[in-house]
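FORM 7B: Structural annotation worksheet

SECTION A. Query
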Amino acid sequence: MDPLSTPKNETKKKLRPASWQVALVAIFLFYMLLPIISTYVFSVATRWDRTILPEGYTLEFYAKAIQASYFTITLRNSFILSISTVLVSLLIIVPTVYWVHTRLGRAKPLLDILMILPFGIPTVVLALALIQVYHFPPLARSPVLLIGAVVVYSMPFMYRPVSNALQALDVQTLTEAGQSLGANIFQVLYRIVIPNIVTGLLSGSLLVFSTVFAEYTLTSLIVGARFKTFPLLLVEFTRINGNIAAAFSVISFTIAWLVSMLILWVGSKGQKATTEGIRAH
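SECTION B. Predicted structure
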């Protein structure tokens, strides 16, 4: 018997998950996937209240959902709101966090605390406060005020990935190296720092997009029917037809998933091109 093979076998045994670990993961996946699968099935079920499985299947509810009068308008508004929020969050968070990491290190604990506040402030309170403060035109109950509200609401989801990505880099050294070569602070941020934190930017963008795309309370209270989004249409149909509402939920989830895949694909292509450019130089 080869004595060198014993450690390898022991290593393989250690790497194999225990039966209770497999069972725990299986239970977790079942718990997470069951509501999603049930929503998908309910959106195509003709009737599902007397048996374990639906009595029949149809795509009629998807056809009715797409033919809804505000379907295209609400979908467009949700895209406008989500993409605008992502762009504004990037413009605000990235320079601020970079500046704190390089120049105002003492302010980082305070910034961390401020980024926790949106989790503790109910969206109803936030909406009513903004309505009371910005009650003058053109901001009063406008899409611009709504974008500002959802930026505040989703700011922690952008801040944390960007901050972690910057913390993993030696930003101070990169900044000093760039400035020693004649680059100003904006060139350092755009050409050196941002290409190195693409993963954090993508993670934050995905979190913000998915959060804002499904946001209902702020939109309902601030703009209402003036700027109707997809979640408002979904909630409206929950009172009319549950199957059509389920179809809207599936469409919303599928769109968010496809956009997430698109963002990841574009980001990976951009990061690859940036890496090749750096190697070429």
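SECTION C. Observations
The chain has a mean pLDDT of 84. Residues 214 and 264 are 20 Å apart (CA to CA).

SECTION D. Sign-off
Analyst initials: ____
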